[in-house]
Automatic annotation (TrEMBL):
SUPFAM superfamilies given in the database record: FAD-linked reductases, C-terminal domain (SSF54373), FAD/NAD(P)-binding domain (SSF51905)
Protein name (record): Amine oxidase domain-containing protein
Any single GO CC term annotated in Swiss-Prot or TrEMBL for this entry: cytoplasm
Alphabetized InterPro entries for the sequence: Amino_oxidase, FAD/NAD-bd_sf, Flavin_monoamine_oxidase
Family: Belongs to the flavin monoamine oxidase family.
GO molecular function: polyamine oxidase activity
Amino acid sequence: MGDDGGAGTKDDTAKTGMSEKRKHKVIIVGAGMAGLSSANHLAKNGCTDFLILEGRNRVGGRIVSIDMGSQKIELGANWIHGVLGNPMFELAMQHGLVSIINIPKPHKVVAATEDGKQVPFQILQEIYEAYVCFLRRCEEYFLCQYLPPPDIHSVGEHINLEVDLYLNSVECQKEKHLRKLIFECLLKRETCITGCHSMDEIDLLELGSYTELQGGNIVLPSGYSSILKPLCDHLPKDNIILSCPVKRIHWKRKVAHRATPGAGARDTILEEDEDAGADSDDSDRTVTEVPIGGAAADEGIANVLKNSSANVLVECENGTVYEADHVICTLPLGVLKEQSETLFAPALPQYKVESIDSLLFGTVDKIFLEYDRPFLNATISEIMLLWEQEASPPEEDEPTGGALEQRLKESWFKKIYSFSKVSDTLLLGWISGREAEYMETLSHEVVAERCTDILRQFLKDPFVPKPKRCVCTSWKKQPFSRGSYTAIAVGASQDDIDNIAQPLYSSPHQSKPSVMFAGEHTHANFYSTVHGAYLSGRTAAQILLTPDSPQEIVMESDSSDLSSWIQGIALD
């Protein structure tokens, strides 16, 4: 994770550099949860001829922890979302990572206004219950036939409409204003849960497409990252190569060569659809030019392209070229958004590119503050920050460029909706969207100072100490994530997730695809979750393992779980 503390320690389950063997049955791009899941499923079913290529110098992707004080803190994934049918919960149980004796911690949330006044708890409870009800109503549109009011397309617009109707019945302006601030705070919290800048970006009709597993959120006592060890234990050490970013995936077979006038010292490799008519023009072909007169790397790739019998060639940033029958690409949606045009040769089909563009890949960051001594009241577990809101300008007047930069500089911190206690001496703040991206440009010292000012103001206590250490994540800045997780933007749908998940075939006669896609952004029901990534990786591996002739398939033991069952329905 680069500058996210000491997250980049080398993992002894893998090695850095180059694999001796250059041809493999399967190459997996990315050693996050989807990649590790694919590799595990292949290994458990007797296929060990695979190689994982990982850009970072560690495995785990968006699951990563660092030591802070006497405890581990999770910079990425935090919770196992749901118990019933969740393969991550089953894996954690299997390896003794779940604490069966759950001693409930005192959980007292307080909400305070900018002048340090605390809101009576019953008002907080009343507004929270109303908010949950409004959110549930938004989710119903996905399954129901009725339509929302005209001109209401996003979750944010719908909730704000309900909020206005709800507050109309409150006579006292002061009471009305206070309740409005609580609703706004809860909407900010929702942007961190959903992974967006504003709930106005989230498609109303698609909100219910996300399937919530029952059983609440589970925190592993040893941290989410402790789940990586059991996943890596089964994998041969030599099958993972770290610090090896992939530059390009060449996925179409070369079936003809022809000289192109004026190409000079270039060898043009023609990729032809086998079912194309002999006398058709170039509209159904992709011509990829590989310069062979220039750099040695280019010459190398051109030669391998010419002579290889493999379906796919994977070209790495360090110049190494690997050959594979199949590639499972688990690069995050943020990386695909940034590199989809250059990462695949030939370019991805247009429908895929459009779906990659349509979906949202938002930024959600964490701010950890570590103290020498406890200062928050022992019974308080979280303090919600009810910021006074400047009236937001109409969409067409939204600031851009320098004006936006100035506004972010003045008020980025107003997107932090609360500070919660991880322990008596460790606080955690969440921030999302453009404000999170702006925070990533600041030094940790500047963030720590600002957070201290906020706590002093809202707690009405000028003696709140400065933290001895501040750690902020930077998921947008990280080259191998470029954001946090997937959400369905206004105008996008589950179809876009299915489009990205569609495999690529090098020729129409192939029984198994050349390139498959996995990761949380490819699961139509469990996008944005680790279990979504895990299941998508397992599904990709299973497609490659399934024999061409029908016979009984024995899945691993958790195939009877609800999530696999839902996955089965989704595939049909």
